[in-house]
Amino acid sequence: MFGPRFANTAPKGPLTRPAPCPREVRDVAARLEAESLDATYRRTDRIFFWLLLAQWVFAIGLALVQSPRAWVGATSSVHSHVLVAVFLGAVVNAFPLYAIRTRPGAAVTRHAVALAQVAWSGILIHLTGGRIETHFHIFGSLAFLAFYRDRTVLFTATGVMVIDHVVRGIAWPQSIYGSTTPDGWRFLEHALWVAFEVFVLLLGVARSRREVRTVAEREAALAAAHSAIERTIRERTEALAASTRRYRDLVETTHAVTWEYDSDVGRLVYIAPQAARFFGCEESELLGGGFLESFVHPDDRALVKEGLARAGDPSAFASGPHQVDFRVVTPNLGLRAVRAIFGAPRAGEPLRGVVLDVTQQKRLESDLLQAQKLESVGRLATGIAHEINTPVQFVADSV
Predict the structure, then answer these.
(1) 3-state class of 263 per DSSP?
(2) How many CB atoms lie within 10 A of CB 328?
(3) Terminal Cα distance for the chain, rounded
């Protein structure tokens, strides 16, 4: 289900990793779903912690108002309803409150809360003498228990509620129905209404669980896609950094000096670091506007300016890259012969090229030219000597 989605989101190229397998995505989705449900369990536990305490206080107040004291002749005593509210309420709340504090989010805590909440419905019905209005507390309790999004909690609460109604309906019907001889259909009516609400709540719980699962699957898919994209970006960044290092090692450690020249402002905007060693100055001095005046030989400045000016003419590069030979005056190496080679610039981009030190080449060319001149003179002298020697030999032979 998730394979094609990740295959489309992953970047294409030689460094693209395969899409995450569906099993990995399902595992992540299951973990996210479990974390979301655990957060729901803990949040609902906190709600019931205060709800159980509020019901205890309300039950005590109700007992004190409804029947604070009982009379037997001239003797009065505390009514049993007050004792039920105080002591039975404390017993009902003891374990759930302890479990909420010590084991929040646990299954045993949820079921303990369900038992306590149903017990509070029974206690309140008893304190009001089985008034029909108090029976609505059962529906409210089931609705609150549905906050857990756990259908087993609803089954536990419903089962205990049915047992309570059956047992008290048989042994003490006045406690739950307010009458010693209730109609037989009363229990069936209550059971049907409770069953109807539980059915509706189960549908709601199932739907909410599906929504949680769907959200978890989407988050897992997004997380996997994000992780894949991050890995690809990281790998391509590392590859770019390695390529940059190779470029710098290749370009900045050779005798060829790369440069960029902005013809609009008439200054260098970049020059390779080895140029500072070549010219015997700081790199910032080379990037200044006075490069031509500071380092180019005065007799060659016009030539350099003309060569840079021709960079704006596309016809100058019809036969290939343009080159300019000139001389520079360096503080550490003296007069050097250099050759600037550059191609046609792209629109809106600076002029780029390289500068080569051709001093040795020029010296070799000069030596070769001198040798060629000497060779020519030698050949001329040999020819002249041969031409002179021939008539002299003839004269000598004649004599």
Answers:
(1) coil
(2) 23
(3) 119
Which residue in 164, 185, 169, 116 sits closest to 144, CA to CA?
116
CA dihedral of residues 315, 318, 320, 323 (deg, nearest 10): -30
Q: Is 76 helix (H, G, I), strand (E, B) or coil?
A: strand
User: Parallel, antiparallel, or unpaired: how do β-strands 322-330 and 69-72 relate?
Assistant: unpaired
pLDDT tens for 257-313 read 777 777 776 677 777 777 777 766 666 666 766 665 667 777 777 777 777 777 666
Between CA 12 and CA 101 the distance in angstroms is: 52
Note if the pTM is more than 0.90: no
Q: Measuring CA to CA, how many Å separate 143 from each of 122, 163, 187, 204?
A: 16, 19, 21, 10
CA distance 171 to 371: 134
Q: Cα separation of 92 and 123, whole Å?
A: 10
Indicate if the pLDDT at residue 18 is higher than 50. no
* Identity of the amino acid at 198: V
Alpha-carbon dihedral 96, 97, 101, 107, rounded to 10 degrees: 20
DSSP 8-class letter at 333? T
Distances (CA, A) of 191 to 122, 133, 195, 341: 15, 16, 6, 97
Nearest to 101 by CA among 37, 52, 158: 52
**Six token digits for residue 339:** 């050759």
Give me 237's structure tokens. 């960044």
Q: Measuring CA to CA, which residue among 5, 121, 99 is closest to residue 49?
A: 99
Q: What number of helices (H) and strands (E) belong to the chain?
A: 14, 7
DSSP structural state of residue 326 = E
Between CA 325 and CA 128 the distance in angstroms is 111
Residue pair 308/261 in contact (Cβ under 8 Å)? The answer is yes
Q: Are 202 and 155 in contact (CB under 8 A)?
A: no
Among residues 41, 26, 33, 42, the alpha carbon closest in space to that of 152 is found at 41
Beta carbons of 222 and 28 less than 8 angstroms apart: no
**DSSP, residue by residue, 339-389:** EEEE-PPPTTS-EEEEEEE-HHHHHHHHHHHHHHHHHHHHHHHHHHHHHHH
CB atoms within 10 A of CB 235: 16
